[in-house]
Amino acid sequence: MYKDTKIYQVLFSILGSETVTTWGCVRHCGACCHLDPIQRPELADYLSEPELELYLTMVGEGGWCVNFNHGTRECGIYEQRPDFCRVKPDSFQRMYGVDPSDFDEFAIDCCHQQIKAVYGVDSREIRRYHQEVENSPH
Ligand code: SF4
Ligand code: SF4
Predict the structure, then answer these.
(1) For a disulfide at 47, which of 51, 113, 120, 134, Cβ 3.0-4.6 Å?
(2) Residues whose CB is less than 8 angstroms from the CB of residue 46 and which lie 6 or more positions away in sequence, other chains included
(3) Residue minimizing CA distance to atom 7 of ligand 1
(4) pLDDT tens for residues 1-20?
(5) What pLDDT, on a 0 to 100 scale, did the predictor assign at position 5?
(6) Is ligand 2 within 6 A of the CB of residue 68?
(7) Residues in the ligand 1 pocket, defined by CB under 6 Å
């Protein structure tokens, strides 16, 4: 999960959200495993130097993570994945300065943006994600 933080922070401050939903990951998505650094110009703003080095070693063909299984759309090192891959409040606070109380809204918006960028605005993946959010606890 990665964000263009400055753009996001502006959007987030404008849009905020009046609805409270719970973030969730949909299975067989993997949009956030598309790591192409060209599409993430602010990596150095929120990753430490060692993390950035690791990140760049993970970029494979077509900008996808070398650990991403395209057949199953699952992470091949899930239990050992880096902290910057983990969608959780403390990681997001460290990387993006997001208050834990804003975590769900921020993470949901991250997924929306990433899924749209990778799979398209009319994709099955974005529809599945909308369903996930709609069905989440309010
Ligand atoms: S973009 Fe969101 S929903 Fe898709 S795999 Fe990543 S965390 Fe899960
Ligand atoms: S390490 Fe796993 S979770 Fe992280 S980008 Fe690669 S495939 Fe995705």
Answers:
(1) 51
(2) 3, 5, 95, 96
(3) 25
(4) 655 444 444 444 444 444 55
(5) 47
(6) yes
(7) 1, 25-26, 29-32, 87, 111, 114-115, 129
